[in-house]
Amino acid sequence: MSGGIDSTVTAMLLHDEGYEVVGMTMKTWDYASSGGSKKETGCCSLDSINDARQAAVDFGFAHYIIDIREEFGDYVIDNFVDEYVAGRTPNPCILCNTHIKWEAMLRRADMLGCEFIATGHYARIKYENERYFVSKGLDDNKDQSYVLWGLTQNCLARTKFPLADLTKPQIRKIAADRGYEALSKKAESYEICFVPDNDYRSFLKRRVPDLEDEVKGGHFIDQDGNRLGEHDGYPFYTIGQRRGLGRAFGQPMYVTSINPDTNTVTLGTEEELNRRSMLVYKENWMKYPTLPNNQEFLTKIRYRDEGALASVSNHEKGVQVDFNHMVKGIAPGQSAVFYEGDDVIGGGIILAGNTWGFSS
What we know:
Blueprint: H1 5-16, E1 22-27, H2 46-59, E2 62-67, H3 69-85, H4 92-111, E3 117-118, E4 123-128, E5 131-136, H5 153-157, E6 159-160, H6 168-177, H7 181-184, H8 200-207, H9 211-215, E7 219-221, E8 227-230, E9 254-259, E10 264-268, E11 274-285, E12 295-300, E13 308-315, E14 318-328, E15 335-340, E16 343-354
Parallel strand pairs: 1-2, 3-6, 7-10
Antiparallel strand pairs: 4-5, 7-8, 9-10, 11-14, 11-16, 12-13, 12-15, 13-14, 15-16
C-alpha cells in the first residue's frame, strides 16, 4: 500500500470480497539522505505512509511498514548507478517490481502467513497450458504489463490484480463514493522514487563522488568519428537525448550511441537514431517455457512505445530481434517486451542495437 489511490482501492475491493487483508507499505528509500533539493514525495513520504495506514484503520485490517531500504539499495539503486557507468540507460521500476515488490514482498508475506499478494497494477494474470503470464489490463491508457515482464512463475501464481477490469476514472469514482474524495483527486507521480527532482546527473554525482572527475574531458563525435567538442562525461547522456547537450551544432543533434571505453558520445540526426535490429539478454519467458523460435511478435522498447512487429530468434548472447522496419531510439539498458496479442510472451534487457543486424 503506497498511500495512493490504486493500492488503496485494491485493498478496498479485496476487503469487500471477504479476503483477510494485511496492508504492507515498503520504506524503500530515504531521500533526505541523498542530498537532493526537493521535498520527499511519493510512496516513501511520511504523508503517503500515513494515508496507507489510515485506510487500513478505516477498514479494520492490519498494516505494517516494512523497512526494505537495504534490499532496495542492493538491487535497484546500485544497478541504476552501475548501468549509467556502463554507458546504458536503466529502467529501475522493472527491477523494483521483480526483486522488491514481488520477491522481497513474498518473503514478508510468508512470515505473516499470507497466501497471496495484491498490487494496484493495471494488468491481468492468465493461466494456460500450466503457465502463468501477464496480459494487458482493460485500461489501455494505464496498462502496466510492460513493466511486469520479469515476474517468475512462482510470483505470478501468488499474485492478484484486482484493478485488471477497471479504468482509472472508475477507480477514482470508487474512491470518491467511499468517502475518499481527496484521494480520488490525488495527483500521480511519474518520477523515479529515489530521484524525485528528476536530476539523475546530480544523483549519480552524489552516489559516486569521483565520477565527474573521472569522466570529464570526453568528446562528442559524429557518425564518422570526427570530434565535435567536449562533453560533461558519457554517463550523463542517454540515447535519443537532444536537449541539454551544452552546445549548439547548427542543426538538431541527438545522442545515437555511447562508448564508455573511449568516453565518447556519438551525435547524429534524428534519422540516424534508427535501428533495424537489437540484442536482448537476461530474458524471462512467461507464456511459453522457452522462446518460440523464428516467430514474429509485437515488440516494445519503452513503456509508452506502441510496439513494432519483429522476428525474434535465439542468439548466442541471448535473443536477436529483427524489426520489420526501422525503429527509433533503441537504448541499451532499457527493456524489450514481446507480445502475442494482449499477452506478454516475455521480455529482457536490451544489450545493443544495430542498423544491419547481428550474426551469431
